[in-house]
Design goal:
Blueprint: H1 12-40, H2 45-58, H3 74-86, H4 90-119, H5 122-133, H6 136-142, H7 148-168, H8 171-187, H9 192-207, H10 214-237, H11 240-253, H12 261-267, H13 272-287, H14 293-310, H15 323-342, H16 346-368, H17 373-384, E1 392-393, H18 418-425, H19 432-439, H20 444-451, E2 455-457, E3 472-474, E4 480-483
Parallel strand pairs: 1-2
Antiparallel strand pairs: 2-4, 3-4
Length: 486
């Protein structure tokens, strides 16, 4: 006898629960891919730069004063305890990659919460996080050990609590927003672009008499407190002048241009549908009179930040990390709005989101097949064949993570890089004399002959010109030489 309950279709609430479970499953599967990429993707030399800077911190060195850097320092102080607790090993490097993965999860969750809050829709929030986690541009940069990742996380937390304040008018929310923005700033100065958006939003709301000056003053006070403490630390350590020179004067001095379009053209085939949806979504939000003010604010921030990237002299992939969550929120709003307008069935929504992320997910799966084992083996080789006190010359940051360097300029010493830029800046009559003191002692041949590093790289170095052939032998690793003289 047939059971008639088997012939009864499930009600819409059951379908909705199954649909939401499907979206959660997609997000979980994409997160698994991201974790595998975190463990296996090759290391960018910027990652080794930041790990080595954290090692300097554990060695009681001050950023900017004792070693060259041009980023804000909070990432190095975050990584330093891991180096102290886990030791100077490649296993620690892997743990730091996992730490960045945790931040990625935080970014995805913050994207979900912002989207849910401004649209009052869990579906929109889940789709936004799925679009973000399927972005190859976001994932490939997001898994890397760089300050952009925690900067974006705290930037999104700031945005979340800013919108909460606009809805609740609670002082606590605007203070949390300001503190999160300040922490993001201490990770990386690029968050200033988001602050520019905030300034425009505050001015607009004050002119329209939607807020008073009080939240602006609270935000300014909350943001200023950590920054003042940071500046105080720079003054006490005597590194304020070098901080200003490296992080601001130097950055503004750099004049060479790198077009952003080749980067976008490289990633576009991997993300065709999502990247088509984003600009369409922005246009839809701007022209849609029914779109709320908060989603229009998301669109505004996306446009400002994206255009600022196109105008940036050096728009590397990681610069898009804050833009993509906002674009994903806009794209998710567009999709759910269209779904509701045409009253689409759940199955159609499942098919559409699956089609959208299928291509990017395939490219992400291919990334999981790659390996960084050869890079970790190189680092291990240097560690196993050197003492903790041995000097190393590694101008391209390929293998020296946990040994002392020859000079203040320990990386970025090639043509048209930081060292050559500083030599150009030395012609400035106001700061030239101070800058010259920094680089005047950089004579690589003399430094190698004097400090006798255990390993040297051939990067920006001619062994023949420096007459080092009798002192160093080529290892089995290309461009890596080991000292033969005791």
């Amino acid at each position: 006898m047939n059971d008639s309950r088997n012939l009864t279709p499930p009600d819409r609430s059951t379908l909705s629960r199954n649909y939401m479970s499907f979206l959660f499953l997609l997000a979980a599967l994409l997160s698994s891919l991201v974790l595998m990429i975190s463990l296996n993707r090759y290391f960018d030399h910027d990652e080794f730069e930041h790990i080595h800077s954290a090692w300097y911190i554990t060695s009681n060195q001050f950023p900017y004063l004792d070693f060259f850097e041009q980023h804000h320092p909070l990432l190095w102080y975050l990584l330093a305890p891991f180096l102290s607790l886990l030791g100077n090993s490649t296993q620690t490097v892997t743990v730091l990659r996992i730490l960045m993965f945790v931040f990625i999860l935080g970014i995805a969750f913050s994207t979900y919460r912002i989207a849910e809050q401004v649209t009052r829709s869990r579906e929109t929030g889940l789709i936004a996080s799925i679009l973000l986690l399927s972005s190859t541009l976001f994932v490939k940069s997001g898994v890397e050990i760089r300050p952009d990742v925690p900067e974006v996380f705290f930037g999104l937390v700031s945005i979340l609590y800013l919108f909460r304040y606009f809805q609740s008018a609670r002082d606590r929310d605007i203070i949390i927003s300001s503190l999160a923005a300040s922490i993001a700033f201490l990770f990386l100065q690029k968050i200033a672009l988001l602050l520019f958006c905030y300034a425009a939003i505050f001015i607009y709301k004050i002119v329209r008499k939607r807020i008073s000056l009080k939240p602006v003053l609270l935000f300014s006070a909350g943001f200023s407190l950590p920054v003042i403490l940071f500046l105080g630390g720079l003054i006490i350590s005597g590194s304020l002048k070098d901080y200003l020179l490296n992080n601001w004067v130097f950055i503004f001095y750099v004049f060479s241009k790198i077009s952003p379009w080749p980067l976008l053209q490289w990633y576009f085939p991997q993300n065709v549908l999502p990247w088509v949806i984003m600009p369409v979504s922005i246009g839809f939000i701007v022209l849609n009179r029914q779109a709320g003010g908060e989603i229009k604010t998301i669109a505004f921030m996306f446009v400002v930040l994206f255009l600022s990237i196109l105008l940036t002299p050096h728009p590397f992939a990681q610069y898009y990390l804050l833009v993509l969550p906002l674009g994903s929120i806009a794209g998710a709003y567009f999709l759910t709005n269209i779904y509701n307008r045409i009253k689409s069935k759940i199955i159609l929504r499942v098919v559409i989101i699956t089609i959208i992320i299928a291509g990017p997910a395939f490219y992400l799966w291919k990334e999981t097949q790659k390996t960084n084992r050869f890079q970790l083996d190189l680092i291990n080789y240097v560690l196993q064949n050197s003492e903790e006190s041995d000097y190393i010359y590694d101008g391209d940051i390929r293998f020296n993570l946990f040994r002392p360097d020859l000079h203040y300029f320990w990386f970025s010493v090639g043509t048209d890089q930081a060292l050559s830029r500083y030599r150009e800046m030395a012609k400035n009559k106001y700061i030239g004399e101070y800058i010259e003191k920094r680089y005047i002692s950089y004579n690589l041949c003399k430094l190698i002959r004097t400090k006798k590093p255990r390993f040297i790289s051939s990067y920006a170095l001619s062994l023949d010109v420096c007459q080092l052939r009798t002192s160093y032998a080529q290892t089995e690793i290309p461009r890596l030489y080991i000292r033969t003289e005791k």
